[in-house]
Specification:
Blueprint lengths: L1 E8 L2 E8 L4 H8 L18 E4 L2 E4 L12 E3 L13 H8 L9 H14 L5 H7 L11 H11 L1 H19 L2
Parallel strand pairs: 1-5
Antiparallel strand pairs: 1-2, 3-4, 3-5
This protein binds FE2/S2 (inorganic) cluster (FES) (2 copies).
The site of one FE2/S2 (inorganic) cluster has 12 residues, from loops.
């Protein structure tokens, strides 16, 4: 049976009718057309479907859409600024060769975003822990770890991320 939920999706309030058994992944990809979120294993083991719910990384393939009610959901489509400028984490992934086939990238980048929100200057152990649930079959992880460290590293880059977030928050508020 369908019922209505309301939640914030990439900064916009949305109201949608869902079936009780739908996953958030199904809602995003099949009903809302946000195909940046990828479906890999479908059982919570690969991280390709990672999105943020209230800034926490979750596997949307095993997260019921109904649980999004009243929450704040961020997908890869919501990470760039409204004028299309890439988020510093996305830029760092490109600069460090951390994107090859790209299938894991949306989930990996959102896991990185969740980490950097909590720990702006993570060490390698923090990074490995944060992306432990995200499988990449291409890069061997070294470039990914370098990219995440670069996106959060040191005062200069930290300021860069913080400044970007501040500018984006301001523009969303207009
Ligand atoms: S598709 Fe969700 S964890 Fe693999
Ligand atoms: S870049 Fe291909 S799976 Fe990670």
């Amino acid at each position: 049976m369908k019922h209505e939920i309301r939640f914030e999706l990439n900064g916009n309030e949305v109201t949608v009718e869902i079936e009780d058994h739908w996953t958030l992944l199904h809602l995003l990809r099949e009903e809302l057309g946000l195909t940046g979120t990828k479906e890999g294993c479908g059982v919570g083991e690969c991280g390709a479907c990672t999105v943020l719910v209230d800034d926490m990384a979750v596997n949307s393939c095993i997260f019921l859409a109904a649980e999004a009610q009243g929450r704040r959901v961020t997908t890869i489509e919501g990470l760039a600024s409204p004028d299309g400028k890439l988020h510093p984490i996305q830029e760092a992934f490109i600069e460090h060769g951390a994107i090859q086939c790209g299938f894991c990238s949306p989930g990996m980048i959102l896991s990185a975003r969740a980490l950097l929100n909590e720990t702006p200057q993570p060490d390698e152990d923090h990074i490995r822990e944060a992306i432990a649930g995200n499988i990449c079959r291409c890069t061997g992880y070294v470039q990914i770890i370098e990219a995440i460290r670069a996106a959060g590293q040191g005062p200069a880059d930290d300021v860069k991320v913080m400044a970007w977030q501040s500018a984006n928050d301001n523009s969303e508020g207009k």
